Amino acid sequence: MGNREDLMAGAKQCLFEKGYARSTARDIATASGVSLAAIGYHFGSKEALLNAALIEATEEWGSVLAAVVARATEASDEPAERFVAVWDGVLGTIAEHRGLWASQFEVMLQADRVPELREALAGIQKEGRLGLSALFQGLPEVPDTEEELSRGIFYQALLVGLAGQWLATPDLAPRGQDFLRGLELVGGSVLKSKGAADAPGWHGPTG
Q: How confident is the model at residue 116 (pLDDT cuts 50, 70, 90)?
């Protein structure tokens, strides 16, 4: 690999092992096997490198997640069973990539104090929501519409909530069956007044 790729790999290693705030430029240079000066040359700053590494690591995790969702979707033709299998699979990817998720939460907590970080997160927020909407529907992509963004927001809330609960207390983190039951209860009570059959976008749990 070239110096830029080495730096990205080293930055990801530091993120996963030390976290965002505790990863120093020297840590990254040591893990990368390149000089400190290379960070400034290729990325401008340690923060810019860490932001780029976090985004790339998240995209790599997204590919893992896509494979998990595809396998779960193919396992059953029954929507509720697929929903449970998908979220059990998602939980497995969170456990496998603990360092990434710990760094994600650390970054979210710091974003209000670091303008560059806030801008980086805002830049990928919409794209991420549309990506999640497509992923959980088994589609290559979805149009940039209010409906698809709403789907993405819902899936993002489930995903981040699941990751946060697993990081805090892994043994008590919800499973797919817990999500399904919650969706049935909340969806049923919220949509009852409108009539589930008439509620736009409500088709029961699908994935």
A: confident
Evaluated on CA atoms 197, 200, 204, 206, the torsion sign reads positive
CA–CA gap between residue 84 and residue 205 (Å, rounded): 9
CB 174 within 8 A of CB 165: yes
Q: Which of 69, 83, 94 is nearest to 170 (CA)?
A: 94
Cα distance from N-terminal residue to C-terminal residue, the chain: 38
Q: Long-range contact list for 178-183, CB < 8 A, 24+ apart?
A: 179/83, 179/84, 179/87, 180/80, 180/83, 180/84, 180/87, 180/205, 183/83
**What is the structure's pLDDT at 207?**
60
Reading the block at residue 114, the tokens are 């670091």
